[in-house]
Specification:
Layout lengths: L4 E8 L4 E8 L8 E4 L5 H15 L5 E6 L9 H17 L3 E3 L3 H13 L8 E8 L9 E9 L4 E11 L4 H8 L6 E6 L5 H10 L6 E4 L8 H11 L17 E5 L2 E6 L28
Parallel strand pairs: 1-4, 4-5, 6-9, 9-10
Antiparallel strand pairs: 1-2, 2-3, 6-7, 7-8, 11-12
Length: 290
Amino acid sequence: MPRNIIVHCQYMPEDSELLFIPVDIRTKQCSVVPIECNANISSQVDTFFQQRFADIIYPNEIKAILFISTENEFKSFATAYYFRQKLRDYCKMHGIFYSFPTQDSLHMFGALLSTKIMVKEGEEVLFLRSRANYSTGNFTNVEAMIAVRKKDCYQFIKTLDKIKYGFTQQWKTRFLQSSNPKRVIVLCGPHDTNEYVHGMLEVFKDENAVVYNFGHCLENINEPVVQKVLHDMEENINPYYVSQMFLYNFQVKVGDKVLISVTLDRAPPLEESFVVDVDPLKTVTVSDLL
């Protein structure tokens, strides 16, 4: 039986729901399937994968499952890891390709797919987006993600810190700091005003800024999800592909000494190791801090 369904899902902690969106890659049709499950509770996760998932979508029809992380939906690293591990086990059992991309990487990929922006190797593309002011709730701040062109793809390298937006060249210089993007994409959501969008286009006119309307609907990322799977499975290599990003900054420490440090600008997969002396009569414990 051909596998023509690609599923992307997210966990919504405010509703204790898993949202599944199966996409038929032949017809592009999709549906949204909300399932009650507190993914921070291991027993509910176990029940979901053992008893409920196969009733939602027949596993033999699924080509791939992508769990999309917003980086703050789980209460701890341990609960996030447990859920991802159970999803991985389910996929391996049923011969399903699986991946754990970030929402940011898919937004960047979607923007590049839509705008068809291509720069030379080593040049940067800046993705601009507005952010809410926590004290007022108004979207008066702006931050940016930057990706650099590699030989066969784009790779995220850093985030520019959030500041109150402005429309002058002095503001632009302060915001960009040492960055020098070749192109700029304004990620435009439903909360963004015409004044903001037109102002950003004017400020970044030397970088030929363009607008990408992404909205907040989960179905809007269907195309980058499908194209990511086809690229990762080497069925359709896409030149606008954004390589995998880490979900968090990681550190491995003994006491106050940092033995391994992995930041978001590193491109997985990677492998690092260390050797430490331990007392064979004592217990070594591992803890996580997000």
